[in-house]
């Protein structure tokens, strides 16, 4: 009798202890080198310090908005922290699917005491968005396919110059970035691009410019397409995320060069799904405080060529990586910032026109 | 033995001949009933056997399709988010070219306020942005500034009397005395429930008195919404919370019209002094307030759009899906530079037909070989046919990419053979050709297998008979063998065609711009643009097309002419 | 051999051999000729080569060696559809997607015959098999016997001079089969068609044919009219295969003349027999006696006939005949059939009797 009682009590205790401490969190990210940089820079160090927390990855960031919406409708949110691009964070916030937060409460201040809201500054483009990195969409080209006697391309408008640089181009199969570049190269001042693009005439003008290279464009859907097309020599130049081009150049040693002109900055960061239970929310918040601090974001730049979203992290970025950062002054002479507000409004409209134009 | 059960001459009169009524079974019960009982038990057993499948199909197939069909017409987000506005807007005539009356703006303010508290206004903005570009940001930015007016009013009210800033005081003022007006609370409960989807039944601990509700209708409406939301959705104590800013907007609106002199409930004195000092408050019309936030709010177009999409159900998604548009002035053709879906539907059908046809052309000889080779060789060939099934779809499609691209295997071989100039390599991918090649390869087994099983059932003696009757090889094949293999072609074609029409991964990867299907657009709307209504409408149309083709096929060929084996 | 000479043969197989695998011969050195209008049956157990011969004649198999001639012309290199031979298949092979009339119309259409001619011929062919009312039906809507008639009509409708039939009655029940046997022979004779008929059913072969070719092991064992085949089998295979037969083993003792010899049975008894393929004393032999030729009434035998002792093992009453199983000279399966006549004795089990036969009915064959 006595023995049974002891055993029972022991089991109950063990169960209690296990239930209280073990916390399995599901993080959603993009997979590949980027997810790896997150793992190395902040998830592994955090789990080391908190052995009771374990992290499961779900590589669903590309469909995060649709999946979160479906989960929300089904009333069963299984994700705890979701990595999305800023535009998606805005949409999730609009839909009430992401939780609004107070930066100064949730996030750690900079080492010098600057509150997080100031340290991140404009990067917090939505009340739900916890920025991590700045990346850019830039153009890479085959150095060995530059026509003889020509300099390597140095302007984004070389994309549209088939005379000087014949060969196929790889562009993303959506209007964003392409329309801006087209208008810019059609002579629209950088500051006026979105005003022009908001009008029917401006949209037509952009498509007309794109028409000049349409037959030489291979349209891509996934970020991995352009590096592949460049490596195979299928295209002469193509746009993709700068981190992808970095690995083609530095890891695979392909004869590819970077064209940073008019690179389009974009942000990527976390959102917390709305409606998390109290205990999981607490665990996620605890992780975020650590995972987005100045050192951690700087550490991430060791593993991937994306810039940290905190001002205070910039000086801590390893020297050898600085030249590959989109934010490096040498690279950021002429840049464009993704206009979230504009594209939230015009995405459907311009996309319909863009697709109709593509199909023509 | 059998003699005893038969009505032979020796068997005597059987029981059923003796009875004049219904035939009886051995136990005396009517035969029909016994039979029905026995059959019912059999049917139940059969039903129990198929029940798991039935439930599975119902849950995983029928229900999602029904849900999809429903989504393609569902549109209650507009009336759920803006219930008063849409009701008030009914009488407005958009053809006058004038923005709606102040009353509409007042309703819109209170609706929007509740919606922005519940974070639902941006959803509506996204929904309306499908119809009118730019609405999304209007709703988002205006939602943030809705507080401003109430804050301004409160500042002025506080100058008149500090008590206005006291949540508990406002609570007691709204609670009033005498008969509570439960109708107002119920109305608010329904509205907040529809808005948030949250359960709003239960004890609220607040109900405005009839007198207050009559005297201060706008303030009561705002406060009741606040009370229901705070008490039942947020689960807080209403009396202790500061009211929404919209409550003060309601108060100012009400005081301009109300005669408070006869009122004697709690806070009557304050109402009287405030009414007297109303001149100190910088009252702004709500129309002006919205116009100041965004000029487009006094543009009749936006209101016409809201009015057009007020009904709970809309044909808008379906019209969009066939390049039309539901506008306030009726159904219109979409701008030419936005017309894409009809073209995509046509292309999908055309390419599916081409793919089906190439599957027949390529699969028929293979199936014939399979059916006529000796078993050992046929098995080997069968493995080759089935091989694609064992490889991941993505791998197969990517393999075609490597084969067909300009620096790919086929081009390399052609250049090496000197058949193609190195500078003019063939473009065989990222276009219709690439899609047709890759999809024909992927779908070929679905053609070969039914063809094979039908051909296996055609005895060789038919061909011999035809030849012995004087037919040449070709005539024997064409007039005797081929007609008998038609059911296999039918089954294979239906399979391939229906699979092809809904394919999206392969066209996405190798289709480029001219080789994509309607399903790629559906996928885009489901996972990327999140316009699920339009995606559902496109899917529903695709479903109807398939059913129509099936029906036509049944009419022309006859569905009993389809054999899978 | 038949009375036909090579020159007037309508169908002729000359030294035909057939091998499928290059190792074994399925048909070994086949020689056969038949005159116009003959009804010839190829009879034999399965695997004896009879169907292969038919298929070579139809053109679906090619002869490995030798020549097949039709009306004096070698048809070895003529494709089946140009041979103009009508054929009825085992399972009829009626085209299921065509009506009866369309099935019949098929051979006429491929011969580019005009519509009115076709209709007339189809009607005549259907009337011929009493199926005129079924022209619009599909084969699947017909019974087996009806399908059989249609198959026959289809094989005849284009008026071929030679018709081949490959076990056409195999799928029918007994009664229908007997009826169709009669109809087929009637039609063949009325129309004067040359017919090659393949079957493994000896009754069918005997009742229908002008001549029967008995096949075994890739060879024709005997080619003869039915009565000759039955009464004068040339070897013990034919004797065994055609009808019921009693055999007794022994050794030739003495050849006493061209049509008589004596055989010492293994039990020691000596009987007189007619030598068929034995030529000298000392040869092993099987003597064959038909059950109905065994006589138990001594009065009916010639004088000096050999008599053997027999023990009755079984007596079966079969209505028209009595069937008695006896032990004779060590053979336990010696059967005697006697007519159910008023004076016929009914033997009992265990009884011992003496039996005998005419020496001409007792054929000494190969061992």
UniProtKB/TrEMBL annotation, chain A:
Keyword set includes Cell division: no
| N-terminal signal peptide | 1-22
Q: What is this protein called?
A: Extracellular solute-binding protein
Identify the keywords attached in UniProt to this record, alphabetized: Signal
What species is given as this protein's source? Pseudooceanicola albus
Q: Which Pfam families match?
A: SBP_bac_8 (PF13416)
| Superkingdom in the source lineage | Bacteria
Automatic annotation (TrEMBL), chain C:
Matching entries from Pfam families are given as: ABC_tran (PF00005), TOBE_2 (PF08402)
Q: Which GO terms describe its cellular component?
A: ATP-binding cassette (ABC) transporter complex
EC class of the enzyme, as a word: translocase
- Residue runs in coiled coils: none
Which InterPro entries does this entry report, sorted A to Z?
AAA+_ATPase, ABC_SmlMolc_Importer, ABC_transporter-like_ATP-bd, ABC_transporter-like_CS, Mo/tungstate-bd_C_term_dom, P-loop_NTPase, PotA-like, Transp-assoc_OB_typ2
Q: What is its EC number?
A: 7.6.2.11
Q: Which residues form the ABC transporter domain?
A: 11-242
- PROSITE patterns recorded for this chain? ABC_TRANSPORTER_1, ABC_TRANSPORTER_2
Q: Where are the transmembrane segments?
A: none
Question: SMART domains given for it?
Answer: AAA
State a single Gene Ontology molecular function.
Answer: ATP hydrolysis activity
Q: Does the keyword Coiled coil apply?
A: no
The record lists the catalysed reaction(s) as: ATP + H2O + polyamine-[polyamine-binding protein]Side 1 = ADP + phosphate + polyamineSide 2 + [polyamine-binding protein]Side 1
- What PANTHER family does its record include? SPERMIDINE/PUTRESCINE IMPORT ATP-BINDING PROTEIN POTA (PTHR42781), SPERMIDINE_PUTRESCINE IMPORT ATP-BINDING PROTEIN POTA (PTHR42781:SF6)
Q: How does it assemble?
A: The complex is composed of two ATP-binding proteins (PotA), two transmembrane proteins (PotB and PotC) and a solute-binding protein (PotD).
Q: Which family does it belong to?
A: Belongs to the ABC transporter superfamily. Spermidine/putrescine importer (TC 3.A.1.11.1) family.
Described by its record, this protein's role is as follows: Part of the ABC transporter complex PotABCD involved in spermidine/putrescine import. Responsible for energy coupling to the transport system.
Protein name per Swiss-Prot or TrEMBL: Spermidine/putrescine import ATP-binding protein PotA
Q: Name the lineage.
A: Bacteria, Pseudomonadati, Pseudomonadota, Alphaproteobacteria, Rhodobacterales
């Amino acid at each position: 009798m006595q023995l049974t009682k002891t055993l029972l009590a022991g089991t109950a205790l063990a169960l209690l202890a296990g239930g209280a401490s073990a916390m399995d969190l599901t993080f959603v990210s993009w997979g590949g080198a980027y997810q790896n940089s997150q793992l190395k820079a902040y998830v592994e160090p955090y789990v080391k310090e908190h052995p009771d927390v374990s992290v499961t990855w779900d590589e669903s960031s590309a469909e995060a908005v649709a999946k979160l919406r479906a989960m929300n409708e089904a009333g069963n949110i299984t994700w705890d922290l979701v990595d999305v691009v800023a535009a998606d964070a805005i949409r999730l916030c609009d839909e009430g699917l992401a939780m609004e937060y107070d930066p100064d409460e949730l996030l750690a201040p900079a080492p010098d005491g600057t509150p997080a809201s100031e340290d991140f500054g404009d990067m917090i483009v939505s009340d739900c968005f916890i920025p991590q990195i700045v990346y850019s969409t830039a153009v890479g080209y085959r150095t060995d396919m530059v026509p003889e006697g020509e300099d390597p391309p140095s302007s984004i408008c070389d994309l549209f110059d088939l005379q000087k640089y014949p060969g196929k181009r790889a562009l993303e199969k959506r209007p964003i970035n392409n329309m801006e570049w087209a208008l810019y190269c059609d002579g629209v001042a950088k500051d006026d691009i979105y005003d022009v693009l908001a009008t029917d005439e401006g949209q037509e003008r952009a498509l007309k410019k794109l028409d000049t290279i349409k037959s030489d464009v291979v349209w891509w859907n996934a970020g991995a397409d352009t590096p592949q097309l460049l490596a195979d020599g299928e295209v002469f130049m193509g746009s993709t995320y700068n981190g992808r081009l970095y690995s083609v150049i530095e890891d695979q040693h392909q004869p590819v060069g970077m064209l940073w002109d008019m690179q389009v900055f974009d942000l990527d960061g976390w959102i917390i799904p709305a409606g998390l239970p109290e205990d999981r929310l607490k665990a996620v918040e605890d992780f975020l405080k650590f995972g987005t601090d100045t050192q951690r974001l700087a550490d991430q730049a060791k593993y991937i060529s994306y810039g940290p979203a905190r001002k205070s992290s910039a000086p801590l970025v390893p020297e050898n990586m600085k030249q590959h950062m989109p934010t490096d002054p040498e690279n950021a002479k002429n840049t464009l910032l993704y206009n979230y507000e504009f594209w939230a409004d015009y995405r459907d409209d311009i996309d319909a026109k863009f697709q109709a134009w593509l199909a023509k | 033995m059998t003699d005893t059960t038969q009505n032979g001459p020796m068997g005597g009169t059987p029981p059923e001949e003796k009875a004049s009524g219904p035939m009886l079974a051995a136990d005396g019960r009517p035969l029909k009933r016994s039979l029905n009982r026995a059959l019912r038990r059999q049917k139940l057993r059969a039903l129990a056997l198929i029940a798991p499948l039935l439930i599975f199909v119902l849950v995983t197939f029928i229900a999602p399709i029904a849900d999809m069909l429903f989504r393609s017409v569902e549109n209650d987000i507009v009336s759920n988010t803006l219930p008063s506005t849409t009701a008030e807007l009914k009488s407005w005539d958009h053809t006058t070219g004038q923005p709606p009356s102040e009353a509409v703006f007042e309703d819109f303010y209170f609706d929007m306020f509740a919606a922005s508290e519940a974070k639902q206004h941006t959803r509506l903005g996204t929904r309306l942005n499908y119809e009118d570009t730019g609405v999304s940001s209007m709703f988002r930015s205006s939602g943030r500034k809705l507080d401003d007016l109430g804050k301004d009013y409160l500042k002025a009210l506080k100058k008149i009397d500090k008590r206005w800033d006291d949540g508990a005081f406002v609570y007691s003022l709204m609670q009033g005395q005498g008969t509570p007006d439960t109708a107002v609370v119920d109305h608010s409960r329904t509205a907040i429930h529809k808005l948030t989807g949250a359960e709003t039944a239960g004890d609220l601990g607040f109900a405005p008195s009839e007198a207050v509700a009559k005297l201060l209708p706008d303030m009561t409406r705002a406060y009741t919404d606040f009370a229901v939301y705070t008490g039942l959705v947020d689960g807080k104590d209403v009396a202790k919370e500061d009211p929404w800013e919209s409550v003060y907007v309601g108060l100012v609106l009400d005081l301009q019209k109300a005669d408070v002199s006869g009122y004697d409930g709690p806070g009557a004195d304050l109402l009287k002094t405030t009414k007297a000092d109303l001149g100190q408050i910088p009252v702004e019309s709500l129309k002006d307030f919205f116009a100041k936030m965004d000029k487009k709010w006094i543009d009749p177009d936006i209101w016409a759009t809201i009015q057009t999409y007020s009904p709970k159900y809309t044909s808008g998604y379906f019209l969009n899906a066939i390049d039309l548009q539901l506008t306030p002035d009726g159904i219109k053709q979409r701008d030419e530079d936005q017309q894409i879906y009809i073209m995509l539907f046509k292309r999908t059908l055309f390419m599916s037909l081409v793919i089906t046809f190439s599957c027949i052309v390529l699969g028929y000889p293979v199936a014939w070989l399979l059916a006529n080779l000796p078993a050992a060789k046929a098995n080997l060939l069968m493995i080759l046919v089935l091989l694609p099934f064992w490889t991941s779809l993505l791998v197969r499609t990517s393999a075609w990419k490597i084969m067909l691209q300009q620096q790919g295997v086929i081009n390399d071989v052609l250049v090496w053979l000197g058949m193609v100039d190195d500078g003019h390599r063939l473009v065989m991918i990222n276009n219709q050709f690439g899609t047709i090649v890759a999809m024909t390869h992927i779908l070929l087994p679905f053609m070969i297998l039914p063809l094979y099983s039908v051909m296996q059932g055609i005895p060789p003696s038919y061909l011999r008979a035809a030849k012995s009757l004087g037919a040449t090889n070709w005539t024997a094949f064409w007039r005797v063998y081929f007609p008998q293999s038609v059911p296999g072609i039918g089954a294979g074609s239906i399979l391939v065609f229906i699979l092809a029409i809904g394919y999206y991964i392969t066209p996405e990867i190798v289709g480029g711009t001219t080789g994509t299907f309607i399903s790629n657009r559906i996928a885009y709307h489901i996972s990327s643009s999140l316009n699920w209504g339009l995606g559902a409408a496109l899917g529903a149309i695709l479903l109807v097309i398939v059913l129509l083709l099936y029906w036509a096929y049944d009419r022309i060929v006859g569905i009993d002419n389809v054999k899978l084996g | 051999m038949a009375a036909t000479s090579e020159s007037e043969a309508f169908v002729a197989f000359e030294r035909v051999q057939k091998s499928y695998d290059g190792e074994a011969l399925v048909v070994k050195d086949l020689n056969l000729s038949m005159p116009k209008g003959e009804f010839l049956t190829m009879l034999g157990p399965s695997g004896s080569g009879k169907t292969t011969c038919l298929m070579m004649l139809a053109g679906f198999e090619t002869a490995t060696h030798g020549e097949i001639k039709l009306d004096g012309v070698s048809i070895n290199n003529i494709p089946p559809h140009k041979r103009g031979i009508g054929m009825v298949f085992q399972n009829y092979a009626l085209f299921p997607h065509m009506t009866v009339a369309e099935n019949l119309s098929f051979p006429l259409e491929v011969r580019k015959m005009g519509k009115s001619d076709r209709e007339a011929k189809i009607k005549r062919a259907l009337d011929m098999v009493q199926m005129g009312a079924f022209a619009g039906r599909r084969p699947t809507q017909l019974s087996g016997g009806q399908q059989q008639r249609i198959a026959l009509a289809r094989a005849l409708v284009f008026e071929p001079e030679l018709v081949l039939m490959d076990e056409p009655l195999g799928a029918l029940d007994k009664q229908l089969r007997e009826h169709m046997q009669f109809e087929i022979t009637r039609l063949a004779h009325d129309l004067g068609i040359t017919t090659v008929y393949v079957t493994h059913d000896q009754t069918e072969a005997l009742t229908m044919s002008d001549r029967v070719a008995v096949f075994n092991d890739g060879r024709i064992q005997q080619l003869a009219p039915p009565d000759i085949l039955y009464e004068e089998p040339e070897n013990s295979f034919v004797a065994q295969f055609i009808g019921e037969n009693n055999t007794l083993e022994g050794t030739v003792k003495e050849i006493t003349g061209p049509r008589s010899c004596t055989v010492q049975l293994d039990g020691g008894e000596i009987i007189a027999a007619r030598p068929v393929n034995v030529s000298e004393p000392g040869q092993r032999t099987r003597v064959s006696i038909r059950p109905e030729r065994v006589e138990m009434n001594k009065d009916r035998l010639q004088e000096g006939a050999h008599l053997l002792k027999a023990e009755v093992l079984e007596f079966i009453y079969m209505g028209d005949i009595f069937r008695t199983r006896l032990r004779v000279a060590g053979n336990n399966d010696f059967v005697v059939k006697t007519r159910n006549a008023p004076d016929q004795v009914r033997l009992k089990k265990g009884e011992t009797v003496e039996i005998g036969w005419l020496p001409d009915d007792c054929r000494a064959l190969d061992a």
